Amino acid sequence: MNIKHHLDEATLVSYAAGAMSQAMALVTACHISMCPTCRERLAHSEAMGGILLENLSPADVSEDALQTLLDCIDEEPDLGAELLDCTHPNETESRTHTYDKGIPHALGDYIGGSLDNVEWKRIVPGVYFHDLPCKSERGGVSRLLRIAPGKAMLPHSHDGNELTLILQGSFSDEIGRFTVGDIADLDNEVEHQPLVDSDVDCICLIATDAPLKFSTLLGKIVQPMTGF
Ligand SMILES: [Zn+2]
C-alpha cells in the first residue's frame, strides 16, 4: 500500500477528542488502521491533548455538581454500545486500529468480516451502495459505495465534511488520484467528480455529515433516490 492522501489535522484532533459522529469516526478509524503515518499523528494528537488537560487549573464547582453529573449519566439513552465500541478511539485501541485480509477490523464488524458478504443495492447500472447502521449528523450518510471501471459520480460539492476511504480499486478527481488506503478528507469548499480509473470495481467507505450538493440537473433529480 502506498498511501498519499491522509486525514486533515482538524479531523485527527476531532477524532482524538471523541467529538465526531459515529459515521465519521468509523471512516477515520479505518484509515488509521491502514496508515502508519496517521497512527503516529493520532498518538501525537492524543499526547498533546493529555498535556493540555494536565495543565488546566482546577475550577470551583457547586456542591451538587457530582449528583447532577450522575443524573445525566443515568438519563443517557442507549446509543447502541456495541456499535460505538468499535469506533471509540480510547477504549478499544488495540482492535479499532487493526487491518487484516484487506479490510479494517472496525468495518469488518459491520459486514461479517469481508466485502464478499456485502449485499449491494443498485443506484444506476454500475453504481451500487450498502448503508451502514452508523449514526451521522444532519442527514449525512454512512455507506459503502461500489462503482464500476470507467463510471463517474455526478459532480457535487458538500454542505459539510465528506470522508471517502478507498478499499479496492482507484479513482481520480480534481484533487488527484486515490488508491487503496487513501482518504479524501473534503470540506464544503471542494467540488469534485470522482471517475473510476481502475480495471476492477472501486469500493469506498463514505461518511458525510450533511446531504451532498449536486451541481447538475441530473444530480438533483437522482438525489432523492440515492439518499446522498
Ligand atoms: Zn494517513
Task: Describe the secondary-structure layout.
Elements: H1 9-16, H2 22-34, H3 36-54, H4 65-75, H5 81-85, H6 93-96, E1 99-100, E2 103-104, H7 105-108, E3 121-124, E4 127-131, E5 142-147, E6 156-158, E7 162-168, E8 171-172, E9 177-178, E10 183-186, E11 195-196, E12 202-208, E13 212-214, H8 217-226
Antiparallel strand pairs: 1-2, 3-4, 4-5, 5-12, 6-13, 7-10, 7-12, 8-9, 8-11
The chain binds zinc ion (ZN).
Zinc ion binds next to helix 3.
Structural key phrases:
228 residues; Arc Repressor Mutant, subunit A; globular; three-stranded antiparallel beta sheet; six-stranded antiparallel beta sheet; binds zinc ion; 32% helix; 21% strand; alpha+beta; 2 domains; Jelly Rolls
Q: Can you describe this structure?
A:
The chain has 228 residues and is of the alpha+beta class. The protein has two domains: 9-56 and 80-108, Arc Repressor Mutant, subunit A (Orthogonal Bundle), CATH 1.10.10; 115-226, Jelly Rolls, CATH 2.60.120. It has helices at 9-16, 22-34, 36-54, 65-75, 81-85, 93-96, 105-108, 217-226; strands at 99-100, 103-104, 121-124, 127-131, 142-147, 156-158, 162-168, 171-172, 177-178, 183-186, 195-196, 202-208, 212-214. The protein has a six-stranded antiparallel β-sheet with strand order 3-4-5-12-7-10, covered by helices on one side. Helix 2 (22-34) packs across helix 3 (36-54). The two termini are 29 Å apart. Zinc ion is lined by residues 3, 6-7, 31, 35, 37-38.
